[in-house]
Amino acid sequence: MNWRRFLRIAGVLVLVVLLVVAGLFLWLRGRVHGSLPQLDGSLEAVGISQPVQVDRDAAGVPTIRAVDRVDAMGALGFVHGQDRFFQMDLQRRQAAGELAELIGAAAVDADRQSRFHRFRSRARERVAELPEVHRQVLLAYTDGVNSGLQRLGPPPPEYLLLRQTPRPWQPEDSFLTLYAMYFQLQGSRGSIERQRDLLRTELPLPLAEFLLPVGTAWDAALDDSAVVIAEIPPASVFDLRQPGYVRHDRSPGTKATDEFELPAALGSNAFAVSDQVGADGHAWLAGDMHLGHSMPNIWYRTVLEYDDPEPRRVAGVTLPGVPAIVAGSNGDVAWAFTNSQGDWLDIVKIEFATDDRDRYRAGDKFEDVESFDEVITVHDGEPVTLTVRETRWGPILRQDEGGVGEAIHWMAHQPQGANLQLIEMASARDLDQALAVANRCGIPAQNLNVVDRSGRAGWAIAGPIPRRVGGLDGVTPRFWSPDGPRWDGILGEDEAPSWVDPPGGRIWTANNRVIGGESLQKIGDEFLVVGARAAQIRDGLRARAVVGAKDLLAIQLDDRALFLDRWRTLLLDLLNDAAVTGHPQREEFRRWVKDDWSGHASIDSVGFRLVRAYRLFLADRVFDPIVAACLAVDPDFSLTGISQWEGPLWALVTERPVHLLDPTYESWNDALLAGVDAAIEGLLTDENETLADKSWGQRNRVRFRHPISRAVPQLADWLDMPIESLPGGGHMPRVQSIGFGASQRFVVSPGREEEGYFHMPGGQSGHPSSPFYREGHRDWAEGRPSAFLPGDTQHSLELIPTNVIP
Q1: Residue 355 burial (C-beta neighbours within 10 Å; 0-12, 13-18, 19+)
Q2: Is the whole-model pTM more than 0.85?
Q3: Residue-range domain boundaries for the chain
Q4: What is the DSSP string of 419-457?
Q5: Distance between CA atoms of 344 and 341, rounded to whole angstroms?
Q6: Is the peptide bond before 309 cis (omega within 30 degrees of 0)?
Q7: Can you tell me the distance from the alpha carbon of 251 to that of 213, in angstroms, rounded to the nearest whole number?
Q8: What phi and psi, each to the nearest 5 degrees, are found at residue 537?
Q9: pLDDT by residue (tens digit) across 27-81?
């Protein structure tokens, strides 16, 4: 073969390859862009009885105009199905334990954890129990979702990447979406209760009570109540210096604190003022729910307009998968939530029959354990069967050889734990009606902050509260019986805690202890956080004689590190000249803490990061010797994962009792300086780094990642938001960490929505090629006061009712 002919053939082959690649690219591009929704003109849709108008502004936020609520929810399902179906699919599958069916064997372990709760079966039961008025809404919404999905043409691009076909939405899937929120907002296996019980079992009770406070000096309850804080127990109770002390180290790689801090990640805020102090004599509400960051954002902004029977406009955020406005304003009432952190799960000890482990004691008789075989379907793999064993009190989590087991009794499993009563918040005409709706809601129990058009403000728990009887307090695992210790239904509206028409005209909640006394006992404490953030919000409200929208936004964006001020003072006292002489890194540490402290969690601050890191690196080093007996039983045990540990830690480092000092050190001064050295070592992981490189922005690089990019990082530029450093931290209103922060912020006064503010991370659409995928994100990142209501209409789509989508 001569060279000329060879080059001609090679050229033809290259051209063919290029044409194939170009064709494949165009085909893929066509499939991806073909799945973008139609925004203008008209479309036939199922789930509505009359034509519905869907107008979108420049950010893609829809205003849905319908004749009634059922049609409005059908159209809401339509836009959810078009803009967010893959997100909805992941949420229902995560709750049901069905992720492996979509993504394969890598999800089997996660599915096992979820399938233990049998939520798909429970969701079907909840659908069957719905009142007819809510059944109509749910069926219309379900039809709308499937209609919207079908009208896309090609499915959302994630299914092309996964080589899958989306499964139609079912009515029970909306309840699975609610159950997915239970997983996000509450513990599902009682691990905190079990570890607290371990602490009380292995340590003297006075020491355990000192280490497990319900509150601290930072508390900021609405009723100004205070809890009794246990003092440091004397050496006669517990003494690390006594002969025979045995040290136990935790498992490698399980340090609960380094530069991360789980409790600080809890960060939802909601606060309000009544007409006593509200600008222009009106009540105002601010709400910023904090959740894990992802693309797309968890919420979907919507305005619904329909007759109820009078004209009604409801604006706020929806959770794709659920037919309801989760938080927002209906013109008469505005409402927002923070997670209550109450005790909504108990561990029930189970006594099995000696001769038959399939029977257990229930009072004076034995009952049969029920068994359910849950089959986990695995994409490109063999199915996996999980057998779930249940008692009358819930599924059995574990069983020991001695015939004693543990079952989980969780509000999410109860009939009252999930319903669609939240829909009715859109119809509430005043504060009293809103509080009544809150008591009937079947959602993970939340702090509801609410204001109404007349100027009133109030707080209550939204969601079911168990009525514990028979001496049950929910604090530790114990045996139950049908007529003894147990849950006896839920509290009624007249029994549930609330705080209405506050004397000072101000209300605030921030995952903290909101109230004291009997009300606190009803709510309980799964993980009430340190009240520093709540106190900062309270003080910000009280510092202003008149409070308006701009003031509330300023409090939401408050990144002052007041909580760390005393730790900085401690450090500067500790790092005196004698402590830094001969220790150049300590000297540099002191210089940054002293000279680079603005008092804010700003991205350029080295001082803030060093003070924060010191406290975190120090905590386990102080606590681990004290809880050594717990570590001997469970090497993963960590006090910092189960309590308001700031209180006992501060007491120890300031009072410095010798009998609770790690025997490794001769003095508390030595132990505290070792904490500085540990922080320096932990921060300087590269030998070429210096402390000057350790600004807060270098650590707090915020990520918004799409689930697909976690598995296929090559698609990150298309799917994810650019990584950026943002201000804010823990124990301040502007909570911000690498993967956690405000999922939205809004400020509104009912009836004056045009004056309100709103922004959220990410954009409306879940489609990475949509112009609305990232639109609005900069307003959130920079804290700009963008409008609460959508802007002018840029796109208008009419939905025409039909019975069948061809």
Answers
A1: exposed
A2: yes
A3: 1-34, 191-256+562-598+606-694
A4: -SGGGGGGG--SHHHHHHHHHH--SS-EEEEEEETTS-E
A5: 9
A6: yes
A7: 26
A8: -70, -50
A9: 455 567 889 999 999 999 999 999 999 999 999 999 999 999 999 999 999 999 9
